[in-house]
C-alpha cells in the first residue's frame, strides 16, 4: 500500500508522462509570441503546491526529472528556479532564470526572482538591474514600492562599500613573490576559462549545497578581479580547461593537508589545464565537511589553479597555509591575483628576490621560478635562454625532474642546429645526457658526431678518448657522460673506478 508521499510522487510522474505526450513546446531561446496564453500544466500546479507546503527538495527532484524529458518547458524551468532559490542554490537558480528570460524577457516574476537570487549571491548592482526591470514591468504591483526602496538602499550601500574596499585594498599590498611560480604560471586567456564540475551525488558526505559553495567561490574570484578572471560552466567534459571532481577518499596526503588539491599542466603560453579535487568529508574530524569551510577550500584551490602556486605568509589570507580563520578573499588575495595577471608585469627574472618582509626568497621558490620560465622558453624554441634558466634552477634544486627533462630537450635541439659548431654541439649533448641518461635522441646524435672524426676507433675507445679530452679541459660533466657511455658498451673495472672517482 502506498503512503501519501509515494502516492503524490506516482501521480506527479504520471502527469509528467501525460504532459510529454500532449504538449509540444518551442525551442529554448525563441521569443514567445506576445499575448500567447499557455494552457495550465497540471504537473507544474502540483509541484507548486509541494513547494508551498515546504517540500522543497522533493519538488526540485521532480522538476529536474521533468526537465530531462521536456528541456524546453519554460514554466517548469521557472518553477525549478524558484525551488533552487528556496534551497539556497542561488547560482543554479540564476542559470535556470537566464534560459527563461532569454525567451521571456518581460516575465515579471522571473525578473523579480533573478534580483532576489543575485542579491543572495552578494551581487547588489546586478540585483538592482533585475529589480528595476521588475519595477518597470509591474508599476502597479503591490510589491513595487518595497523594491524601489530596496534599490535605493542597495545603491547607497554599494557605493559606500566600494569606497571602503578601494581604500583598504590600496593599502593592503600583495604577496606575489611568495606564490608565483614563474612568468608563465597563468592562463593566457583568463577571462573565459571553461569549467566542468563533475556530479558528486552518492559520495559519502556530499550535499547539493556544496556545488553552491563552489560556484560562489568561482563567482567571488570573478567579481573581485573586475571580471579579469572569468569562467564559463559547461555540461560536457571534452572541451573543459578546468575540471572539478568531488571525492570522499582520504588516502591522499595532499588532500588531508588542505581537504583539496589543484594540479596544473603548462604549455608554452602558460597554464593549459587544471584539475581540482575536493573532499566531501572533513579529514580532521569524523563527519561531513562544513559548507563555510568548504567555501574557503574552494577559494584556495581555485587560487592555486589560477596560478598562485605557493602560500601566503599571512594566516588571514585565503592562500595561507591553513583554512579555518579566513572569511573569504582578503584584499591581499585580490591584489596578488591582479598583480599576477597584470599585462605590464615583467618576466620571472625580474620578480623580487625578497618577500614583502625583505627576507630572501628560499632556494626552492627561486628554483621553481627559474624552472617554469626555462621550461616555457624551451617550449617556445628559445633554447639558449632555456638552458641558462634551467641550469640555474638545477643548481638550486638538482632533483627537479621537469627541469632535467626540458634542459635535455633544449640542449639536444640546439646541438643539431646547423649554426652550432661541432665542439659546442658535443658539449650540449653532454649536458643533455648528464641530466637525462635515457635520452636516446641525444645519445644517437653524440655517437654520430664522435664517429665522424673517430679515426677508425671503435665506440668504446672513442668514448674513453673523449672522456680524457674532457678531463684535460676540466669538463667534469662531459667526462662523466663519456665514462657512462663507455660502460654501457663494456663493463670495464678501470673505467668504473674512474667514474666512481668523478662522482665523489
Report on the architecture of this protein.
The protein has 504 residues and is of the alpha/beta class. It has three domains: 149 residues, Serine Threonine Protein Phosphatase 5, Tetratricopeptide repeat (Alpha Horseshoe); 149 residues, Collagenase (Catalytic Domain) (3-Layer(aba) Sandwich); 108 residues, Serine Threonine Protein Phosphatase 5, Tetratricopeptide repeat, CATH 1.25.40. The protein contains 21 helices and five strands. It has a five-stranded mixed β-sheet with strand order 2-1-3-5-4. Strand 1, helix 10 and strand 2 form a beta-alpha-beta unit. Helix 14 runs antiparallel to helix 15. The termini are far apart.
Features of this protein?
alpha/beta, Collagenase (Catalytic Domain), 504 residues, Serine Threonine Protein Phosphatase 5, Tetratricopeptide repeat, 3 domains, disordered N terminus, five-stranded mixed sheet
| Chain-averaged pLDDT | 83
Number of strands: 5
Side by side, the strands of the main sheet go 2-1-3-5-4
* Fraction of residues in H or I helices: 55-70%
- Which stretches are poorly predicted, pLDDT < 50 over at least 5 residues? 1-37, 345-350
CATH superfamily of the largest domain: Tetratricopeptide repeat domain
CA-based gyration radius: 31 Å
Order of helices and strands: HHHHHHHHHEHEEHEEHHHHHHHHHH
Overall CATH class of the largest domain:
Mainly Alpha
Largest sheet: 5 strands, mixed
Amino acid at each position: 500500500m502506498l503512503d501519501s508521499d509515494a502516492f503524490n510522487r506516482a501521480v506527479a510522474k504520471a502527469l509528467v508522462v501525460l504532459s510529454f505526450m500532449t504538449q509540444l513546446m518551442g525551442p529554448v531561446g525563441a521569443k514567445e509570441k506576445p499575448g500567447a496564453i499557455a494552457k495550465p500544466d497540471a504537473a507544474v500546479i502540483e509541484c507548486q503546491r509541494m513547494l508551498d507546503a515546504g517540500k522543497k527538495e522533493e519538488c526540485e527532484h521532480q522538476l529536474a526529472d521533468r526537465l530531462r524529458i521536456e528541456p524546453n518547458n519554460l514554466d517548469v524551468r521557472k518553477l525549478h528556479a524558484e525551488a533552487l532559490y528556496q534551497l539556497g542554490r542561488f547560482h543554479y537558480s540564476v542559470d535556470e532564470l537566464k534560459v527563461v528570460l532569454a525567451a521571456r524577457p518581460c516575465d515579471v516574476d522571473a525578473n523579480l526572482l533573478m534580483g532576489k537570487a543575485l542579491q543572495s549571491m552578494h551581487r547588489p548592482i546586478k540585483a538592482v538591474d533585475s529589480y528595476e526591470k521588475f519595477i518597470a514591468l509591474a508599476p502597479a504591483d503591490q510589491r513595487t514600492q518595497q523594491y524601489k526602496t530596496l534599490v535605493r538602499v542597495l545603491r547607497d550601500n554599494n557605493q559606500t562599500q566600494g569606497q571602503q574596499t578601494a581604500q583598504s585594498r590600496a593599502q593592503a599590498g600583495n604577496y606575489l613573490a611568495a606564490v608565483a611560480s614563474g612568468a608563465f604560471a597563468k592562463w593566457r586567456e583568463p577571462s573565459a576559462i571553461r569549467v566542468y564540475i563533475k556530479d558528486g551525488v552518492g559520495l559519502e558526505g556530499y550535499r547539493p549545497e556544496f556545488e553552491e559553495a563552489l560556484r560562489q567561490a568561482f563567482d567571488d574570484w570573478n567579481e573581485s578581479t573586475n571580471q579579469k578572471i572569468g569562467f564559463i560552466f559547461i555540461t560536457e567534459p571534452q572541451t573543459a580547461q578546468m575540471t572539478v571532481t568531488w571525492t570522499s577518499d582520504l588516502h591522499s596526503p595532499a588532500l588531508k593537508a588542505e581537504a583539496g588539491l589543484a594540479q596544473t599542466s603548462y604549455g608554452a603560453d602558460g597554464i593549459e589545464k587544471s584539475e581540482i579535487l575536493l573532499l566531501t568529508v572533513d579529514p580532521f574530524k569524523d563527519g561531513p565537511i562544513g559548507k563555510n569551510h568548504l567555501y574557503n577550500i574552494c577559494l584556495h584551490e581555485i587560487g592555486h589553479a589560477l596560478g598562485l602556486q605557493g602560500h601566503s605568509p599571512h594566516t588571514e589570507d585565503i592562500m595561507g597555509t591553513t583554512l579555518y580563520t579566513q572569511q573569504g578573499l582578503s584584499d591581499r588575495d585580490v591584489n596578488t591575483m591582479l598583480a599576477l595577471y597584470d599585462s605590464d608585469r615583467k618576466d620571472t627574472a625580474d620578480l623580487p628576490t625578497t618577500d614583502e618582509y625583505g627576507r630572501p626568497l628560499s632556494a626552492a621558490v627561486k628554483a621553481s621560478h627559474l624552472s617554469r620560465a626555462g621550461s616555457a622558453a624551451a617550449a617556445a624554441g628559445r633554447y639558449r635562454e632555456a638552458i641558462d634558466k634551467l641550469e640555474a634552477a638545477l643548481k638550486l634544486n638538482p632533483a627537479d625532474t621537469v627541469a632535467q627533462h626540458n634542459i635535455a630537450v633544449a640542449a639536444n635541439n640546439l646541438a643539431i642546429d646547423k649554426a652550432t659548431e661541432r665542439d659546442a654541439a658535443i658539449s650540449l649533448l653532454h649536458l643533455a645526457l648528464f641530466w637525462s641518461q635515457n635520452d636516446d635522441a641525444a645519445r644517437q646524435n653524440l655517437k654520430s658526431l664522435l664517429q665522424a672524426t673517430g679515426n677508425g676507433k671503435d665506440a668504446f675507445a672513442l668514448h674513453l678518448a673523449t672522456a680524457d679530452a674532457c678531463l684535460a679541459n676540466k669538463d667534469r660533466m662531459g667526462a662523466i657522460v663519456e665514462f657512462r657511455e663507455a660502460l654501457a658498451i663494456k663493463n670495464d673495472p678501470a673505467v668504473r673506478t674512474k667514474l666512481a672517482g668523478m662522482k665523489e
